[in-house]
Design a protein that fits this description.
28% of the residues lie in helices and 24% in strands. It has 585 residues and is α+β, with helices and mostly antiparallel strands. Helix 4 (134-156) crosses helix 15 (532-540), helix 5 runs parallel beside helix 14 and helix 13 (490-499) runs antiparallel to helix 14. It has 4 domains: 12-103, Nucleic acid-binding proteins (OB fold (Dihydrolipoamide Acetyltransferase, E2P), Beta Barrel); 134-263 and 538-575, 2-Layer Sandwich (BirA Bifunctional Protein, domain 2); 291-412, Gyrase A, domain 2 (2-Layer Sandwich); 423-528, BirA Bifunctional Protein, domain 2.
Length: 585
């Protein structure tokens, strides 16, 4: 055997035992005639002791060990005289009598420590070394535990885990597909699934009643901290349910995970907010409600004072930051520069300070009297010491900018505590989004989302006002999952395709097999999919989902470790009947 114990399990109860350990050299320290070596594996670290007076040859061998050498040692467990409370094995050490170097190692390009000196690029290039770090390993262990517990929970709820195909037909209505050429069918392509949507609906038609899958999904889209080209969904579907049934099941699952992972009991029901209110008060369909600072619309209150910035735009709104009236000019300039960033796009920032003596100081007090400013402050229920921040412009763009400002101010005030969790259901999304460029409607979620049955008559008169029977679970401003009740009626589904600009031929080509299945008796059904990567990231307190994925891609969609994507040789191209013709940008 290479080991009798792991490097993380020895305690005082093991003193006097002869044991064998195997692992990687974390560090070595020479102190007089003694050499101390820390040996590490997945389970922890144990201190080894080599004594020059007891075995000079073995001690000399230990002095030549380098970082990350793979070694096997045998010796006796002894109580440490100088205990280390920061190590789980810190009360014992191993008096080594035998050592076998299993493999030498080059000096790693960065230190294998929690606080490493390696930057993102170098750590991604040597990801197999980065995975040796405790902090990264713990993220993957948490992912395993969460995934295992989700499977256990859903099994108890009578869900069946069913695998669906990875090579499917392309449905280019959503994000861009990754496509795969077919050698046996020249000129034809598979696509990698953006989700198992069609197949899970078919499973409901097949009578499987409750389905789930820990599913790999793929989207060829621009990346950011919470996106990867390949990601993992907890994909679920249920038959004979309405929205309330779905929300209850998966709210229960999330409460179970909070108890399992964080030992947090959540007794009360998750609050629910309509999409309209989310946009009105927070400027986001995934609002962070750990703190208040709701938007207050001010157009009527501030118009007619000859301040052209407010008078000339359709939308004026602001937020109230509690206790921030003491912000310095420098701090206010920093916030102004923040909202002027190109990715945010505001043209400027107006502030009103609610001074502790009851007066007001503003960047626009040339146009507004103290009474005017007091009336504005009353709309916010602002108190002495508060700071009101106002943006103006196009409604949608200004709401987005004010949302970013709200989050920035909350971050500066320490209100975005990762150890505080504020779950929320966002419901009643619009069924359609209108695109000015193409002059047509697109599905807000996907073409199979059921309209709110009360709004069905509006499909023929005012489709933009139709609400979807759709829902998202949001925690701390992160959309963890979403879903909808599906259309199970063929006539309504055909009407949906028509409104989305599908010709009957195009609908048949892309979704004919689903529509055919509906003709054989489709039950009412609906479902939800959680992003497993985002879920783990939330519980681990991470800023990026990349840190809880074993082998992630960088922001350019590249695997810099395996050098993918890469060119393929001409023989492969010929076999696939492909010609590469790269157009200059």
């Amino acid at each position: 055997m290479f080991r009798t114990q792991t490097c993380g399990e020895l305690r005082l109860a093991n003193v006097g035992q002869q044991i064998t350990l195997s692992g990687w050299v974390q560090r070595t320290r020479k102190m007089g005639g003694m050499t101390f070596v820390d040996i590490r594996d997945r389970y922890g670290i144990t201190q080894l002791v080599f004594n020059q007076d007891v075995n000079a040859e073995l001690c000399d061998q230990a002095n030549k060990l380098g970082r990350e050498f793979v070694i096997q040692v045998t010796g006796e467990v002894a109580e440490r005289s100088n205990k280390n409370a920061n190590m789980e094995t810190g009360e014992v050490e191993i008096l080594v009598t035998e050592m076998n170097i299993l493999n030498e190692a080059k000096t790693p390009p960065f230190t294998i420590e929690d606080n490493t000196d390696g930057g993102d690029d170098i750590r991604m290039k040597y990801r197999y070394l980065d995975l040796r770090r405790n902090s990264v390993r713990q993220n993957l262990e948490l992912r395993h535990k969460i995934t295992f517990e989700i499977r256990r929970y859903l099994d108890q709820m009578q869900f069946l885990e069913v695998e669906t195909p990875i090579l499917i037909g392309s449905t280019p209505e959503g994000a861009r597909d990754f496509v795969v050429p077919s050698r046996m069918n020249p000129g034809e392509f598979y696509a990698l699934p953006q989700s198992p949507q069609l197949f899970k609906q078919l499973l409901m038609v097949s009578g499987f009643d409750r389905y789930f899958q820990i599913a790999k999904c793929f989207r060829d889209e621009d990346l950011r901290a919470d996106r990867q080209p390949e990601f993992t969904q907890i994909d679920c579907e249920m038959s004979f349910v309405d929205q309330e049934d779905v929300l209850n099941i998966f709210e229960g699952m999330m409460k179970h995970l909070f108890k399992f992972v964080k030992n947090i009991d959540i007794a009360e029901a998750f609050p629910r907010m309509t999409w309209q209110d989310a946009m009105k008060y927070y400027g986001s369909d995934k609002p962070d409600i750990r703190f208040d600072m709701k938007f207050v619309e001010l157009k009527d209150a501030v118009s007619g004072h000859d301040f052209v910035v407010f008078d000339s735009v359709p939308y004026v709104a602001g937020i109230c930051a509690t206790g921030c009236a003491g912000y310095t000019r420098k701090q206010l300039d920093e916030l102004t520069d923040f909202v002027k960033r190109p990715q945010i796009g505001a043209k400027g920032l107006v502030y009103i300070r609610c001074e502790v003596d009851g007066s007001f100081k503003s960047s626009v007090d040339k146009f507004y009297s103290n009474d005017d400013l007091k009336a504005i402050a009353t709309l916010f229920d602002a108190q002495p010491g508060d700071l009101i921040l106002i943006l103006a412009g196009n409604k949608i763009k200004t709401q987005k900018a004010l949302c970013e400002l709200r989050l920035e101010v909350a971050g500066r005030l320490g209100l975005r505590d990762k150890n505080v969790y504020a779950p929320l259901w966002v419901i009643d999304f619009p069924l359609f989004e209108w695109d000015e460029e193409t002059q047509r409607y697109y599905a807000t979620h996907h073409p199979f989302t059921s309209p709110n049955l009360d709004d069905v008559p509006l499909l023929d008169t005012d489709a933009g006002q139709v609400r979807a029977t759709a829902y998202d679970m949001v925690i701390n401003g992160v959309e963890l999952g979403g879903g909808s009740i599906r259309i199970h009626d063929s006539a309504l589904q055909n009407r949906m395709f028509e409104l989305l600009g599908f010709t009957p031929e195009k609908a048949e080509a892309q979704f004919g097999f689903l529509m055919s299945a509906f003709q054989y008796g489709a039950p009412p059904h609906g479902g939800l999919a959680f992003g497993l990567d985002r879920l783990v990231s939330l519980f681990a307190g991470l800023d990026s989902i990349r840190d809880c994925i074993a082998f992630p891609k960088n922001n350019s969609g590249r695997d810099v470790m395996a050098d993918a994507p890469s060119v393929i040789d001409q023989a492969q191209l010929d076999e696939l009947n492909l010609i590469i013709d790269i157009k200059e940008k």
